[in-house]
Amino acid sequence: MSLAHGYAAQDAHSPLVPFAFERRSPGPNDIRVEILYSGICHSDLHQSRDDWGGALFPMVPGHEIVGRVAEVGADVKKFKVGDIAGIGCMVDSCRHCDNCKADLEQYCFEGATWTYNAKERGGERLTFGGYSDHIVVDERFAVKISPKLDLKAVAPLLCAGITTYSPLRHWQVGPGQKVGVIGLGGLGHMGVKFAKAMGAHVVMITTTPEKGADAKRLGADEVLVSRDADAMGAHAGSFDFLLNTIPVGHDVNPYAALLKRDATMVLVGALTELEPPLRGVNLMFGRKRISGSAIGGMAETQEMMDFCAEHGIVSDIETIAIQDVNQAYERMLKNDVRYRFVIDMATLERAPA
Amino acid sequence: MSLAHGYAAQDAHSPLVPFAFERRSPGPNDIRVEILYSGICHSDLHQSRDDWGGALFPMVPGHEIVGRVAEVGADVKKFKVGDIAGIGCMVDSCRHCDNCKADLEQYCFEGATWTYNAKERGGERLTFGGYSDHIVVDERFAVKISPKLDLKAVAPLLCAGITTYSPLRHWQVGPGQKVGVIGLGGLGHMGVKFAKAMGAHVVMITTTPEKGADAKRLGADEVLVSRDADAMGAHAGSFDFLLNTIPVGHDVNPYAALLKRDATMVLVGALTELEPPLRGVNLMFGRKRISGSAIGGMAETQEMMDFCAEHGIVSDIETIAIQDVNQAYERMLKNDVRYRFVIDMATLERAPA
């Protein structure tokens, strides 16, 4: 065991406060990572406030973790001390089901072990996330990161990045395709960058005309304002693929109308009820498809990280001190971030043990 | 012009009554078909009662038409007098859009011309359907039917048949796959027959345990009662494909749970709102897909008809006289039909002109 320091929610109604806790000692396949940067995901806020139910407290959020390897177990092959490592939403899975064998641990039949707000595999100890000074994790659930990248801006790739990269890759987005990214936030801004780097003609679809200029700076070829019925009509039936990053339940019918025959819209943000409801006829005429996608497997997360190194892709971020995390949550609720907060963990003061 | 006789709804609130009207004389690409049998589709009832709005009266329903070719235009290539022909839901389309060129006239960008409750292409004359003694149609929108088949039981293939055959083919259902057919009615009973003939392991999914024995007679290998939560749980994540024939909006979430990773559920019946709403998370974990499909193109309708001749597949029907059509509608509303009514058009008395 080693003593760790971080920030935790003690219950659903209080701000995050300094918190000391224990991490396991590295086993033979584990690495110990000194955390440099920890991205703030919208889901950190939802979970720490128990918006989705079932929250486990105390909770140390954070699943966009970049750090330096400080210790490696005897059987570790992928990392050596001093390497830069990334840890995302998962720290374990069953490893033997069909999905785990297919390198899709996020769809583990028995359920992946999430980086925080979960219990360690086969035990009762809580997992604690990246708002902390170090973490111990099986090397299978860490990826290698090129030290050439701006490491603080790499952190959000571990969740916002892979969540958008994976469906774009799976549905084979590429040159000659017209691809829409719906919603310009933490996920959407990464979707634009990736779709553009993959060679597609990228249309940013947003409710907010003011975001247009920024969307083009990020790489969008066009901006489509979804509240403009004429513009939506002009784009009807023209998209090869839609990446829908809207983080709440919403009316997907107008977006379905944008799809070509046999084309797919993938939901990556909206976990809850799609209201007003989807109308069957809007899928039938044109054999349109709606699907969803959750983060990505570890092999694909490594592939994404290598793609980012090759193409010089990172997130647009605003760095904060850990002491400002509660204020950052409030700003996120107002969409006042372009496009992701990242905590500089060097700002962490050690809490009393 | 030629005088035709049939049964029509004169408005949304009255029963169907005898009706005389004019058909166009066959043009060079047209065939004139003496109608032998006309299937009754659920949508006939909805349209004649204007349940979906926009109904055009007088309305002669019927888009599951089997008859004998009585006359052929000068340029007709596919048919000769005496052949058996089938006409389904469409009688025309733009013929130059991408979907028409891809033999998917049902998804015509400009809208296909429906067999009834529509206007003739480029004109103001109403189209009139199969509850009548003859029809004139471009040969492109008629299919050849093997005279070896039981012709009265062939009629429903033109709508219920192709509606289920097309998605099963498009999503490449075949041996080694576990395929669920949801809902045992006019569409569902054809779905079971086709999926079985294509070599799949077929599971009939129904709310009604009493339908189990009949489902097995039709070819189902298993029956899953959707109201049995334990049974649904036992089948979770196990289906390669789901053909959802439920004809009204419903909760698709329990069915999404049945899909394997990357597997698809296709809606062919539910045109309206899917309520309670679909939850995004139910697609995300497993990258599951929901799509829809409408009838099939003319080339595929011919392919289906040939498949039926090869495999001896027809619908399970109950033949009625045209004078009983209003009573048949009432029985349909009570699901009192196994599984499709077909009108024997020989029962038609000529109405006064």
UniProtKB/TrEMBL annotation, chains A, B:
Classification via Gene3D superfamilies: Medium-chain alcohol dehydrogenases, catalytic domain (3.90.180.10), NAD(P)-binding Rossmann-like Domain (3.40.50.720)
Keyword Zinc on entry: yes
Superkingdom of the organism of origin: Bacteria
Tagged with keyword Oxidoreductase: yes
Entry keyword set: Metal-binding, Oxidoreductase, Zinc
Pfam families: ADH_N, ADH_zinc_N
Protein name, per record: NAD(P)-dependent alcohol dehydrogenase
Organism, as annotated: Luteimonas gilva
Lineage of producing organism: Bacteria, Pseudomonadati, Pseudomonadota, Gammaproteobacteria, Lysobacterales
